[in-house]
Amino acid sequence: MTEVIGTIDVAQIVLYAFWIFFAGLIFYLRREDRREGYPLESEDGFIENPGVVFMATPKSFTTEAGVISYAPRLEAPQPMPKGTPIDPWPGAPLTPNGDPMLAAIGPGAYADRVDTPDVYGEGHNRLVPMRADSGYFLESRDADPRGMQVIGADREVGGEVTDVWVDRAETVIRYLEIKVNSATPKTVLLPMPFCDVSKRAGEVYVNAILGRQFVNVPTLKNPDQVTLLEEDKICAYYGGGYLYATPQRSEPLL
User: Fold this and answer.
1) Does residue 103 sit in the same domain as residue 62?
2) Separation CA 213–CA 101 (nearest Å)
């Protein structure tokens, strides 16, 4: 064994250097893994902030849409859902406050995504109504849902299909545009996975929500484009209907 100074040899130096390197690696990785989900905020309002030493230096990322995001995030934490814990301990299930369909709880929860449209190619909007792009048409052998009535889970008419929204990146139908039966004119979107188009009956069936609940579907800021945040809210509303559309759905089967 090669001796360097006294009883210190090369093997010891290499071992200590490895320990120092490994400790530094762990410290670096623990700082980096705090880019998502920090500072931690518990349900009782307590915020756990590791401090400057143990928190990674923020990095900025410019998305294709021109939106700048940071990691760790610098904006304030998202607001709490509209619900009340059924038990006092953290993590207890929430019971919705007010209209459960709009409480953003359970299957009706959604992510706080950026409020800009999804784009493809050279920055073009990925999802558009067919009226905005004359290059798309429906296969003549398939049912054309435009003009069909939309029937809810209670067999009541919720509205009428006025247009079809296509995904120009994958060439598929993503949404049906519906003119809702209400006192004031209102147009909402219906995701295709939540509906069943019957060519024989000339109707569109939706089991997720009731006919009268179409009026509360989140609307669009721009009638010819849908943002990522709006998509999440819309899909969450229909998803929440499977549990909250009727009081019976949230009860046990037995």
Assistant:
1) no
2) 9
